[in-house]
Structures are given as C-alpha cells and as structure tokens.
Amino acid sequence: MTENRVLVFSRLFHRLAEIALGLAIVFIPWRLRTNLFTQPIPPIYGDYTDGLVFLSDFFLVAALIFWSFDLLLLRRRVLLGPRLLAFALFGLTGMALVSAIFSINPLISIYHALRLVLFAGMYLYLVNEARSLRLFVWTAAGQVILQAWVAIAQSLQQRSLGLQALGELELDPAWFGVSIVGVQGARFLRAYGLSDHPNILGGCLAFGLVVIAVWVASRRSIWNGLLAAVFFAGLLALFLTYSRSAWLGFLAGILVAGALTWLVRNRSPFYREIWQRGFVLCLAAALLLAPFLWGNADLLGVRFNRSGSYQGAPEEQRSTNERSALNQAANQIFVDNAFLGVGIGTAPLALMQARPVFPYFYQPPHNTLLNAALETGITGAAFYFLLLIGPWLLLWGRRRSLAVTSELIALSGALAAISVVGFFDYYPWLLAPGRFWQWLLWGLWAASYQKSLLPQALTPPSSVLKTTLSNAVSSPSVAIPSVVPESDVSQSVAQVNHA
Known about the structure:
Strand order of the largest sheet: 1-2
Number of domains: 1
Shape: globular
Order of helices and strands: HEEHHHHEEHHHHHHHHHHH
Number of helices: 16
Helix content: 55-70%
Distance between the termini: 37 Å
C-alpha cells in the first residue's frame, strides 16, 4: 500500500472513530438496550443481574475498532497519559478482573470487568486522540437538548409521552415504583427523559452543562447563542429531575470552574473575560430558573426537608432511611470481604445473601467509593480513590508550570461535579451511563492536562500526519503528538507523554 493510500485510510478511520464516539456520547443516558444474558435472581431488580448492552456501547465499540485500524496503519505507539492516572486506572481494571475470579457470581462480575476494559480502551483513545473539546461539547449539547425537551414535556404533562420506541419508560405518578416528589398526599412526577431514572438523567445533564457553560464563557463565536439556549433548556430539565445529588454536583462543578478561573485571572486578560462572561451566563440562568423555583417551592421544601417536611412525605423519609440502611449493611459486608471484595457488580446479590430479611430493595450502597471497596476489595478501592484525587494532585503539583486552559478548567469542573454525585449515589460506579461519563471525563481531563504542560509548537495537523507517516515506515513506535486547535492558540500548550 502506497504512503498516500495509507494516509487516506488513516484519515478515514480517524474520522469514523470520532463520529462513532460522538454518537456514543449523544446516547449515553438513553435506556435503549438489549441483553447479552438474563439471570433472574428475585427479588433483585433484573438490571443488576442481567448483561445489558446499550446503544452507546455499540458506537463505543465501533469507535475503538476504527481507532485500532488507524493505529495499525500508521504503526503508532499508544501513549498512556499521566502516569498517576494510568497507574490507578489500569490498577483498578486489573482488580476488577481479579475480583471476577473470586466473585460470588462470576458471570455478573466478568460482564462488569469487561465493561471496565472497554472503558479503559476509551480512556486510551481520548489520551491519544482528543485534540480539542469541540467535538465533545457539541455532542454533549446534542445529548442535553434531546433529553431536555423530553424531560420538560414529561414534567409539564405529568406522564410519559408515548416514546417507548425510543426507550422511554411508561410513567404515571400514581404507579408504585415511579419516582415522584410527594407533597401533602399529591404525587409529582420527576422528569426521566429517555433514561432509566431521574437521578441518572440529572447527573448526565449536570456534567455536560458544566463543560458547556465554560465553553460558552471562553469563546466568542456565532454559535454561542445556540449553545447558551441548549444550556438554559438543559438547566431547566436538570431542575425538573429533582435530583439533589445532580443539583449539588452541578453547583460544585460551576464553583470549581469559577474558582480555577479566578485563581489564574492575573495571568492574562483572557481569564478575566472568562470569569466575567461566565458570571453573566450564570446570572441569566438564575433569572430563568427563578419563576420555576418560586412556583415549585413546596416541592423543593420536601426535597430538602424544610421545616421537617419529611413527616408529611413518606416517600422522602423512606428514601433517606433506605440509603442509611444500605450503607450500614455494605460497610459490614466490606469488613467481611476486605481483601478481594465480593466481585465487581455483585453488591445487590451480596446484600441479599448477608441480609435475607431486609425492609428495602436490594441495591448497591449510595456511595461510589464504598461500592469500589465492597466489590473489588481494599486494593481496588485504593486505586479508585487515587483516580478521584489524582487530577487534583496533578494540578497542585504543577500549579506553577501548568498552562491552565479553558478546556482544563471545564473538565476539572465536570470532574468535581461527578465526584460530588458519587458521594450520594452509585451510578458513576455501577450503571452504564454513569460509568461512561466517569471514564470519559478522566480520559478528556488527562488529554487536556497533557496539552497544558509545555508551550505548544504550532505544527499544522497535516504536517504532523505526513511526518509521522514517513517516520512510521522506519520506526513502528512513533506517536502522533496532539495539536492544539486554533481556538486555543492564544493559550499555547502542548501534549507530552507523561506527567
């Protein structure tokens, strides 16, 4: 195959991988899925014991296949990203595989361990190929707007919209098991969108909205008005999920992004402009939400137990008691299985075995670190904890030499958001949408961090590809360096192999 033909096919596979990953991001919250296997273990909810394959999984697998072809054509070396994060991520993946060997249900654990292997592949793809947040921002915006209009319509009509062909659940606030907010005997439906649960939808919206907000604040573009409209629609949908963890995560993400921008404001007028435009965007969002906050004050009061409102809302009281009981039981199971855990993905089954009589649904504890410890043992939990704090350790360690770009600020805010959610819910650890977001953000953050370490040699992408192609003929281990997009040229940063 001639060099020109190799280059053409390489570009084709590169672009196909980008498109496939973009579609995977759009479909992250969607509950459309098929089963690899079913394993009914009543009374445990079937989604905890079945092997589910989601629409986003198909596109992610396609993206990694296309990327593999691209790598083979150019014989490129795969970079691992910052050493600290790579060590923790692959250590956690290894412990997940080990836990499957000793699992109380090997089939479930093998399925979940292989999912972590898949997401580790996505992490590597992002570390090596994510040159800009532009693709991610627009696909995240697509995810947000597709879910937002469904969520808002569900909340207004207080029922499902008949979109079951697209994966929508059949919803009626009068039905048992449907997530609602109860006020004085009335049952108000929380917005599901096309997801499995309002908490999952809320988290997906929150993580994307943090990045979109910083992107809009950091760029002067004719498309900012459209992205701002998506941001406002997504923010309203986030409110209507009534997900407290997602609300707190979003606020934490915005505060962290704002704090990082403020800390570096004296380095360049660029940062002061980001902070000012971001403040205006948040102020406009607050004005937009104000009427909805005022009109739904009773529902907000119930969610935050204002004036002891839980006494008149048995659903809220049950939810609080359930989380406490789950966490206490999980702690005891962890103590009994601290070395290797019970096997990744098997927390509900372990709870059923340990507590045959239990007044609540069998489900994982509502804390991601506790889940990691319970399922993969103390070593797996240590790797997971290192992944949670690793980005902040790297930011602190390089605080004087790091070129803090708007992309790094946005992704740091999103990481803060998902970390906060993980204190109160388990889906960033166990469920496919949460896992996808968590590993996606780790990969994007690692890529952005690498580009922020050294001044960028502004080499056109075509020159980089041609140079790499000619070098690949004589050396099978040449890596394509990442190129900063034109929108970030003013910040002059570069990718290096390791932290």
